[in-house]
């Protein structure tokens, strides 16, 4: 398997970020809102943060830029994206990547954390989990998140199941924002990015490992793209305070607080 240079990994992550913006024209705004919430709600300048479904570490790197004393444990099961993150962010002592499947029972105990987690975050990742997997993942998370700890999830979460009319309006707002943002042309999409990865011999070993894992996976169920599915799963895991902190169309920052004593907010 080829060893990635930092420069090569950074180039691929920059390209990843651009293709993600094609689906999220306000991606950086959502990142900023999420990091504001971490900074205000963690209760300490050196929080322990879990990044669930971290990809190549785009959110984790931005968190450390704002909160350099934080410790971030970034979790994903994609060997190629993890390799990019590790190579690009090797200089960040507060960041460690963990190769774990959030759909597998016991993932939280494998982390062997030395203290309870202050905040768990995720962006554009957890909708991939089927409802049963989402419920199991939140149950695991509740075992390591401290009382009063925060969960923050930025994702496209729809309301089609409870309000079709509002769902259509949210989609229109999102689509118009996308057209305005990319009036001069869209960036490459998800499939084009992965096709380019497949054509790069430097990434061939990682690509093969990714495909091997995908073929061996035995997970079933449809994606969880409805807001109500996530809210109900959080309630089932014991979270009682749940709401949207930021929204633009169907792009939301969903927040939940684990019951228990809460730290003072930092304004």
Label this structure with key terms.
Methyltransf_25, 7-stranded mixed β-sheet, Rossmann fold, 267 residues, Class I SAM-dependent methyltransferase
Task: Give a quick precis of the structure.
Helices cover 44% and strands 19% of the residues. The chain is of the alpha/beta class and 267 residues long. It has a single domain, classed as 3-Layer(aba) Sandwich (Rossmann fold), CATH 3.40.50.150.
Explained architecture:
InterPro entries: Methyltransf_25, SAM-dependent_MTases_sf. GO terms for molecular function: methyltransferase activity. This is Class I SAM-dependent methyltransferase. It comes from Sphaerisporangium flaviroseum. The structure is a single chain. This protein is of the alpha/beta class. The protein has helices spanning 6-21, 27-41, 58-66, 79-88, 107-110, 131-144, 164-181, 190-198, 204-216, 227-236, and strands at residues 48-52, 71-76, 95-99, 117-123, 145-156, 241-248, 251-257. The protein has a single domain, classed as Vaccinia Virus protein VP39 (Rossmann fold), CATH 3.40.50.150. 44% of the residues lie in helices and 19% in strands. Helix 3 (58-66) links the parallel strand 1 (48-52) and strand 2 (71-76). Helix 2 (27-41) crosses helix 3. The chain is globular and about 50 Å long. The model has no long low-confidence stretch (mean pLDDT 94).
Write the layout of secondary structure elements.
Layout: H1 6-21, H2 27-41, E1 48-52, H3 58-66, E2 71-76, H4 79-88, E3 95-99, H5 107-110, E4 117-123, H6 131-144, E5 145-156, H7 164-181, H8 190-198, H9 204-216, H10 227-236, E6 241-248, E7 251-257
Parallel strand pairs: 1-2, 1-4, 2-3, 4-5
Antiparallel strand pairs: 5-7, 6-7
């Amino acid at each position: 398997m080829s060893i990635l240079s930092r420069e090569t990994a950074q180039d691929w992550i920059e390209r990843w970020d651009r293709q993600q913006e094609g689906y999220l024209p306000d991606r950086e705004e959502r990142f900023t809102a999420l990091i504001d919430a971490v900074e205000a709600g963690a209760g300490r300048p050196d929080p322990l943060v879990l990044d669930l479904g971290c990809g190549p570490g785009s959110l984790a790197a931005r968190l450390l830029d704002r909160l350099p004393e934080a410790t971030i444990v970034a979790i994903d099961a994609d060997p190629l994206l993890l390799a990019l993150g590790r190579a690009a962010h090797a200089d960040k002592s507060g960041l460690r990547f963990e190769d774990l499947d959030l759909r597998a029972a016991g993932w939280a105990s494998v982390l062997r954390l030395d203290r309870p987690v202050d905040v768990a975050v995720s962006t554009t990742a957890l909708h991939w989990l089927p409802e049963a997997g989402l419920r199991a993942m939140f149950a695991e998370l509740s075992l390591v998140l401290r009382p009063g700890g925060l969960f923050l999830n930025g994702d496209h979460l729809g309301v089609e199941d409870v309000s079709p009319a509002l769902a259509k309006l949210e989609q229109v707002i999102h689509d118009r924002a996308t057209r305005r943002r990319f009036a001069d042309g869209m960036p490459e999409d998800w499939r084009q990015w992965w096709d380019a990865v497949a054509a790069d011999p430097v990434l061939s070993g990682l690509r093969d490992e990714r495909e091997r894992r995908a073929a061996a996976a035995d997970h079933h169920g449809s994606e969880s793209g409805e807001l109500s599915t996530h809210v109900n799963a959080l309630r089932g895991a014991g979270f009682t305070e749940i709401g949207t902190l930021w929204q633009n169309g169907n792009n939301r920052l969903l927040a939940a607080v684990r019951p228990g004593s809460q730290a003072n907010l930092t304004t």
